[in-house]
Amino acid sequence: QVQLVESGGGLVQPGGSLRLSCAASGFTLDNYHIGWFRQAPGKEREGVSCIGNSDGNSYYVDSVKGRFTISRDNAKNTVYLQMSSLKPEDTAVYYCAARPTYSGSYYGLCAGQKDVYGMDYWGKGTLVTVSS
Q1: pLDDT in tens, 7-24
Q2: How far apart are CA 26 and CA 69, in angstroms?
Q3: Buried (b) or exposed (e) across 26-57, using 16+ Cβ within 10 A?
Q4: What mean pLDDT do residues 100-108 have?
Q5: CA geometry: angle at 110 spanning 33 and 39, to 5°?
Q6: Is 10 in contact with 18 (CB distance < 8 Å)?
Q7: Distance of alpha carbon 127 from alpha carbon 50, whole angstroms
Q8: Measured between alpha carbons, how far is 39 from 46 in angstroms, rounded to an integer?
């Protein structure tokens, strides 16, 4: 069964840290760009950070630059999002997504470019709550 499973969410105080994981099963991430997205209540989903399949190039939305770090371990078939200096406005459900490289760029994934081949995979999300 092909799936992405996020974990690592929870309740954290402002200024704290969390590390999210996105584990793939049923397929290997080697030929996929991976992205982390979030959706807060009443807001549209936004691309937080995306990483290319092999060169390590990455993208971050301005609001998380310098605080979040995306990384991938293809041997473990897992992608991570290290989040530090968390703020209440980071509260959201965080999702990971995988797009095959033939479908476009990692930047395009984060920018919301359409999944033209219908081959993107999405996880079900993990809730991050930043509150005192």
Answers
A1: 999 999 999 999 999 999
A2: 26
A3: ebebeebbbbbbbeeeeeeeebbbbbbbeeee
A4: 91
A5: 120
A6: yes
A7: 19
A8: 6
**Would you state the structure tokens that stand for residue 60, as one six-digit string?**
């971050």
Measured between alpha carbons, how far is 95 from 122 in angstroms, rounded to an integer?
7
CA distance 74 to 123: 17
> CA distances (Å), 105 to each of 21, 50, 67, 98, 111, in order?
21, 10, 23, 11, 10
CA distance 24 to 18: 20
Task: Provide the pairing of β-strand 10-12 with 126-130.
Answer: parallel
Segment 15-52, tens digit of pLDDT: 999 999 999 999 999 999 999 999 999 999 999 999 99
User: Whose structure tokens read 């530090």?
Assistant: 84
